[in-house]
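Weekly modeling sync, notes
Attendees: AB, CL, MP (scribe)

Item 1: holo prediction request
CL wants a bound-state model with 2'-O-acetyl adenosine-5-diphosphoribose before deciding which constructs to order. AB pointed out that an apo prediction alone won't tell us much about the pocket. Agreed to run with the ligand included and paste results into these notes for async review.

Input as submitted:
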Amino acid sequence: MSAFSNTLIDRLAAAEHVAVLTGAGISAESGIPTFRDPDGLWEKFDPQELANVEAFLDNPELVQGWYQHRRQLVEEAEPNAGHRALADLEAHVEEISIITQNVDDLHNRAGSRTVIELHGNITHNYCMDCERPAEAETVDAAIQNGTPARCPECDGLIRPDVVWFGEMLPPNAIEQADAATTQADVFLSVGTSAVVYPAAQFPMEARANGAYVAEINPDTTGITDEINESIRGPAGDILPALRDAVAERKGQ
Ligand code: OAD
């Protein structure tokens, strides 16, 4: 017996627009730690000390060093079978939007064409003062010299292009995510604990707009009780099986 329902396959095979919300769990099988699992980042590090602008201004080297470490992990990682299956699904569904809370670039590298980054992208850096993009090498060189990384143009501090606690999400990403959510015939929530807003509200919005909403996660989440279907298991197993079932249903 498959882990997912025939209804889900029917709805995916008939869908014109699918929206997928992803979280840290989809990248876990690429070796990138999640946030709230027992070995997750927020278990070992205090977000108040690292992931907000006050912490950064107090100790830029510490925060730059932490993000450099996480960026290097991302650069060494490869997309896994889950990321690739979502990219492959584009061959079988007219339009797929990936709304990701992840700051890694693994959906892009797997070949997904529409990736909406709600929390930024850790591989990008910019100057806090003049907002010019900054090279990762500038950050790496400064950290190696034990000094805060500064903009070569204006000497402002360089920060990662990620959303910190207390900061607004990029308005254009929210707008695109809202549009994808509203249009979705099927909405998948993959590898997210669905407790951080506004991301966690998208599955509910999709359902209110008539989408069939399913989650893929080994554990229960903040939305489990409010959606159509929960598929329990790792994304790297479930998503390829889902892709194959949709392809088979469509005779492709
Ligand atoms: P969490 O760490 O909160 O949740 C990770 C989820 O992935 C959990 O529900 C796990 O059960 C699930 N999971 C673990 N392994 C999995 C696998 N192989 N396949 C599928 N699911 C798996 O991460 P997020 O929900 O992404 O924000 O966290 C949301 C936001 O909280 C992050 O973007 C970050 C953090 O604070 C910012 O930094 C702004």
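Recorded for review: The chain has twelve helices and nine strands.
Action items: CL to compare against the apo run; MP to circulate these notes.
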